[in-house]
Amino acid sequence: MCGNSRGLGAIFLAAVFVAGAAAQEPRMVLDRKGFTVGLEPYAPNVVRVTLSTIGKSAVAPPGYGFVASPSAQGWAPEKRADADVYRSTRLIVSAGIDKPHPLSGTHSEISK
Prior knowledge:
By secondary structure, this protein is an alpha+beta fold. It has helices spanning 2-22, 55-58, 105-111, and strands spanning 28-32, 35-43, 46-52, 76-79, 83-87, 92-96. The chain has a domain at 22-98. It is built from 3 helices and 6 strands; from the N terminus they run αβββαβββα. The N and C termini lie far apart (76 Å). Mean pLDDT is 76; it is low at 1-5 and 7-23.
């Protein structure tokens, strides 16, 4: 009986692991120089975009009146050298990667 319960326990843990892998977080969270960007898909042509300097705000769930549920079905994240891309069959969302650039006279004057 004891050997049988171990086998059932292993099957249960495997089922929990597979269910957890299938229920991946649909949201893509990006850090961009002090800003947090959240990309959260709902359908092949619908994505919720949030942007905040307060990380918790950018990843918070939608507010009052939002009744849809996020779904990553049909969406695929992709990392490129120049951008993070979230792609579906009907929409491509691209967030460019920050590249260092020299400050112009205007930038340096403003920073003073």
